[in-house]
Amino acid sequence: MNNKKGPKRSLMFYYVAAILMIIVFNSFIAPMFFSPQVKEISYGNFLQMVDEGQAAKIEITENKIALVGKDDGDKIIYVTGRVEDPELVNRLVRNKVEFSQVIPKEPSPIVNFFTNWVLPIFIFFALGQLFMRYMSKRMGGGNAMSFGKSNAKVYAEAQIDKSFADVAGQDEAKEALKELVDFLHKPEKYKEIGAKMPKGALLVGPPGTGKTLLAKALAGEAKVPFFSISGSEFVEMFVGMGAARVRDLFKQAQEKAPCIVFIDEIDAIGQKRNSGGQIGGNDEREQTLNQLLSEMDGFDSSKGVVILAATNRPETLDKALLRPGRFDRRVPVELPDLKGREEILKVHSKDVKMTDEIDFNAIARATSGASGAELANIINEAALRAVKLGRTLVIQSDLEESVEVVIAGYQRKGAVIAPKEKKVIAYHEIGHALVAAKQSNSAPVHKITIIPRTSGALGYTMQVAEEETVLLTKEEAFNKITTITGGRSAEEVIFNSITSGASNDIEQATRMARAMVTRLGMSKEFDMMALETLNNPYLGGDTSILCSAETAAKIDVEVLAIIKAAHAKARRILEENTDKLHELAAFLLEKETITGVEFMEILNAEPRVKEELVADVDASNIENNN
Ligand code: ADP
Ligand code: MG
Ligand code: ZN
């Protein structure tokens, strides 16, 4: 991709390079080729050469004597140190040698001035320039000396290789963006009816859902100049530069209208002003934001400049940015649904060689909650795995394994887990699966494994919902917590002791139960009262508490009650199905990984005799020992 840079690489740089080259050439390289060789000799040898008539010419300097020979004078110059020798002149005259005393030359004042003043200053500035350039490169490109240049990359059509076809799913977002393009191309249509187009649109959504990709695709489709800049690029090295850059960006944009300006990660400059009263450091960003606000007010949208911005933290943006007349249109770019995931997988496997019988739907179903970026990664991991295993085509199992890699990390093949611990892990995982299967509202088990992963998971139970739902009922939420407590419950029921293996489960169960009480209104005590709020709906699940300390204490009581009830229910289910628990755990211990189908087969089969089961577990135990 091409981009317009600020000023050209300064001429200064070339001057310095040229001068350095001349100096190096004159003082090192040229003498090597063009000058005669210099040979040091002793004073005795020198006198001998003079006496034998070998000397053609002699030059005497302050502390050296140079002798040019008669035969090899153009190849070798003999040099010796000057010794106090009153006889020398007589000897030279006697031998008829031409000789002269060289008077050291005073360099001319001009040269003197040049070498002592001009050159050092010159080099000083040149080094400064280089340093500046280096610094500004490290700080995100551009030339630090070009104060207030916007640094926006300008893309012309044909320079962008992305189009809407590269963005799978996200149909609503694409629709909204197409409308903007339509406006740029046919403004009369809108003017006629008296409609004003929005000045700006804000793409909001979790990371990796394709916001930047959508903007790039828009640039490829719009056939108008496209300015792209990241919010952090505004705020750089010098105070006051951010505002100047905004000014420059809008000036350029208006010259090039109709065009699109895209500000990625706008939260870097668009955060709420005066929030929290931090000390120092905020002025710069505020100035930049103020400039942006005033520029957006200042220009006439009928000119055909559309401002597009993207963020995954819309809640932190200054309200002034979001009011009508600025980014008045919000384009949600959410995590893909089942169909969206399948399409994204397909788009990314376009250039990957795969067998014909790939079931993308199955992969899409197993990746609920994954972002577009993660799905792209899954395809790539699968291709890498195929290469590693020496295949030329990607097959279904590559994809399945790479889903687990992206979710849970790589298999830790070398990890040594004591057989006794392996047994605990097997019961723990089967505990989850069995509790899930015995609750009608739980998603069926897809896969259970006790192969440890680099993420630290010692094993896990993958559940894949039959169909995707957007609502979570209170019963489903409670059943989920019950399933999560199923692992620890199995340890209790079988071994009558507990391990640290449930730490992650404990966290998950608590988060879920807390959400039920504080945000989902699923407790009797608090009815529909909001007690907590999500800080960043798109980034993780941090929450802020909204209630008094007394209420917070009551929340804890309520959360504990839910978890205790779920835990008790899980134990009950397992106690009623101990036989199946033994049987399934033995099977898992033997196979290490079992599918949901195998799991259901054993679960629905006729029960076997108890002694046989215990023998099974012991047998696999011994196997593992060997
Ligand atoms: P963000 O929303 O964080 O800006 P990006 O646009 O940078 O996300 O997406 C990162 C990568 O994820 C893209 O380069 C692309 O490969 C992939 N991706 C994300 N969403 C989609 C999608 N809807 N269709 C195809 N690829 C996608
Ligand atoms: Mg992005
Ligand atoms: Zn667990």
UniProtKB/TrEMBL annotation:
Alphabetical UniProt keywords: ATP-binding, Cell membrane, Hydrolase, Membrane, Metal-binding, Metalloprotease, Nucleotide-binding, Protease, Transmembrane, Transmembrane helix, Zinc
A GO biological-process term: protein catabolic process
Transmembrane segments: 12-34, 114-132
A family per Pfam: FtsH_ext
CDD domains: RecA-like_FtsH
GO molecular function terms listed in the Swiss-Prot or TrEMBL record: ATP binding; ATP hydrolysis activity; ATP-dependent peptidase activity; metalloendopeptidase activity; zinc ion binding
SMART domains in alphabetical order: AAA (SM00382)
Chaperone as UniProt keyword: no
UniProt cross-references to Gene3D superfamilies, sorted A to Z: 1.10.8.60, 3.30.720.210, P-loop containing nucleotide triphosphate hydrolases, Peptidase M41
Cofactor: Zn(2+)
Subunit structure as annotated in this protein's UniProt entry: Homohexamer.
Function recorded in the entry: Acts as a processive, ATP-dependent zinc metallopeptidase for both cytoplasmic and membrane proteins. Plays a role in the quality control of integral membrane proteins.
Protein name: ATP-dependent zinc metalloprotease FtsH
Native species: Candidatus Avacidaminococcus intestinavium
Species lineage: Bacteria, Bacillati, Bacillota, Negativicutes, Acidaminococcales
Gene for this chain: ftsH
